[in-house]
Structures are given as C-alpha cells and as structure tokens.
Write a structure and sequence with these properties.
Blueprint lengths: L1 H9 L1 H39 L3 E5 L11 E2 L11 E13 L5 E8 L10 E4 L7 E5 H7 L6 E4 L5 E8 L3 E2 L2 E7 L5 H5 L5 H4 L11 E2 L1 E4 L14 E5 H6 L4 H32 L2 H9 L4 H34 L9 H27 L3 H4 L1
Parallel strand pairs: 4-10, 6-8
Antiparallel strand pairs: 1-12, 1-13, 2-11, 3-4, 3-7, 3-12, 5-8, 6-10, 7-8, 9-10
Length: 369
C-alpha cells in the first residue's frame, strides 16, 4: 500500500491520465444506462403503480390495452374485491391555453382505486369532470390545482383537483378520471346530441365498455370463469407488449453491454501496459529485499484505487448530468445497472493485474537491470 501511494504521488500526470480515461469511459456507460432506464420507465410507470398481477383483455387485442374493448355484461361474474375495471384512452388537450399535449386517460371506479398512484398535491374528487394528473406535467408546464384541462377534439373541460407521483404510459403522461368520464368515445366524440348518441358505439347514455379487468391476486382468480374471447395477461407481458418498448430495451441493453465490455478491456490493457513499464522498478525492489507478495499486493491495491476513483468521479459526473437534464431528457439512475457495470470494469482491471503479477514473479532482477 505504501509503495503504491508513493508511486502515485510521484507520477501524478501519468496516473491522472489513467484516471481520466476511466472517468470518461465510466461516465459514458453510466449515462447511457440512465438514459435507457429513464426511457423504459417512461413507458411503464403507470402499470407499475397498479401493483397487480395482471389484467384480463380480449384475445384479439394482441396484448394492447388500447385495442381491447370489453362489454361489462360479459364479465359480471368476475366482479369481486380482487377485480377492478380499467378504461384507457388517448386524447390531445390544452392546460391553461398552453401547447397541445398528447395524454393518456385512465378511468377508475372510485377514489380508492389501485389504478391511481399516490396523490402528492391536492386530492381525488368523486365529482364529475374532476381529474388528477401526473406530477411531471405540473413541473414542466407550471400547472396548479384548480386549473382547467380542455380536450382539443370536443372542447370538454376537466378541473384538475390534484397531482400524482410521476406516471407515464407508453411515453405519454397520464390523467386519471372517473371511468364514466374518460371512455374513448366520450373523450373523442361529441355526446351532447341524443340522436347521434343512438348511432354511437358507447357513450355516457349507453352501456359502458372497458379496456381491461385488473386482477390484484392471480391465485384468487378462477381462470375457468374468464369468458371466451378474453384472456389473462401478466403485468410483465403487458409491459413487454407496449409498442416499441422491447426493441428499445434490447437496443440500449446491447449498447450498454458492448460498451461495458470494451471499457473493461481498455482499462485492463492500460493496467497491464502500465505494470510492464515498471519491470526495472520491481527488479530494484526485489534487490532491496521486497518479497513477491508485497510487490503484487501493491499492484493490486494501486489498480483498485485508480479504478474505483475513476468510477466514483464518473458516477458523480453522471449524477450532475441526470440532475441537469431530468426535465428535458427522460433519464433516471438505476443503481443496480451501475453496480454491475462498475463490478465488470473492476474485475477486468484485476484480470490485467493477474497477468501483471505473473510477470512480476518471473522477473530476474539482474537481467532486468
């Protein structure tokens, strides 16, 4: 340890450059992992908030919630405390005359619904045309409780009564309203004319259709009661079927794995070359009476010190970048991925140390001098 630290103090520029390389490589990998995780969460946070085992949807929907349409009379026998109905729809809207936003609307049956994430500001009202929206809308567009949300298609007005934890579905911010208020027909068609209502598929005045039946605990569900044409889909399968989710995840995953391997190999080569350049120094140390074990332990300590310092600085840079860009780019830190990447880089560095240590054992002091 003493030898390693003394050498670092003497060769500040050389070791500073090595640390700089590790910092840049680790920052690149860490930031890409944060970007990949942020994008994945932008697709699935609303589903994660449900905390259910899965949903029942139509077989013809191809596991797409938007494409699933279930008539309530078909599933009356399923209704119990383990079940909740869900409507999902998209619509464009303006808040306080701001730019038009694309939003996902999710309908709940009552204010204690599993569908709604934790409310962090305001409250959930049971009154008609009252909605709660995701907090990232509040932060981005300076929205407050009591503001109006106006649908672009029908000019229908909702009152914003509160804000939930950040919630997105398939990259769109989520608005939560009562199931009777946010069906796809009500959101996207004018239902004020009773004559045209008679020709519509499902409106305020006609039997409600829903998109899915949410199942809290699958073990309680008797799957034999599921009507023909419907199927149970577990939560993870539902997430993986979101348009673009899996290809995006695989693309970023391969990029991160490739960069991690390349980074680890580069660091390992750097360490090996650095050690080989010090053969004469090791020869002198052997002449002075230092044992192989002492020299090898100093090499290992030096490598761990350099690598962990570079990784730590790279992680700090990543924290700063994520904090600075969180409102502009969907970035979130996944500590598990960062731990795996760091462990891979450290392991490859130590592998370089193993080859270096083997070379140290074979050094003949007189021949090296």
């Amino acid at each position: 340890m003493y030898i390693a630290i003394k050498e670092i103090k003497k060769e500040k520029v050389r070791f500073g450059m090595i640390i700089s390389v590790i910092v840049l490589i680790s920052f690149l990998v860490f930031f890409l992992s944060s970007l990949a995780y942020g994008l994945s969460q932008l697709n699935r946070t609303a589903i994660d908030h449900w905390d259910v085992d899965g949903v029942i949807i139509t077989e013809s929907s191809n596991k797409n919630l938007y494409s699933s349409q279930i008539n309530l009379f078909e599933i009356e026998n399923l209704k119990n405390e383990n079940v909740e109905y869900l409507t999902v729809s998209t619509s464009n809207a303006k808040i306080n005359e701001s730019q038009t936003l694309s939003l996902t609307f999710m309908g709940y049956e009552d204010v204690n619904s599993w569908i709604i994430p934790k409310v962090i500001d305001g409250e959930i009202n049971s009154e008609k045309d009252e909605v709660v929206i995701t907090n990232n809308i509040k932060e981005k567009y300076s929205v407050s409780v009591g503001d109006k949300l106006v649908l672009s298609n029908t000019d229908r007005v909702f009152n914003i009564s509160g804000f939930t934890e950040n919630s997105n579905f398939n990259t769109l911010p989520v608005v939560y309203g009562h199931v009777d208020d946010v069906s796809s027909v009500i959101l996207n068609y004018d239902t004020s004319l009773s004559k045209s209502d008679a020709n519509a598929s499902a409106t305020e005045n006609m039997p409600q259709r829903i998109n899915a039946v949410m199942i809290k605990d699958r073990s309680i569900l008797n799957e034999g009661d599921i009507p023909s044409g419907l199927m149970f889909v577990d939560t993870e399968s539902l997430v993986e079927s979101l348009p673009g989710y899996l290809p995006q995840l695989l693309t970023f995953g391969l990029m991160i794995i490739s960069l991690s391997v390349i980074a680890a190999v580069i660091v390992g080569i750097f360490i090996f070359i650095l050690t080989m350049q010090k053969k004469s120094i090791f020869a002198v140390l052997k002449i002075q009476g230092y044992q192989n074990g002492t020299i090898i332990s100093s090499i290992i300590f030096q490598i761990i010190l350099l690598t962990t310092t570079g990784l730590l600085i790279g992680f700090i840079f990543n924290l700063i970048a994520v904090e600075s860009l969180s409102g502009v780019v969907p970035v979130l830190i996944n500590y598990q991925i960062i731990t795996y990447v760091s462990a891979a880089i450290i392991a490859m560095s130590l592998l370089g140390a193993v080859f270096s240590a083997y070379s140290v054992l074979k050094i003949d002091p007189l021949e090296s001098l």
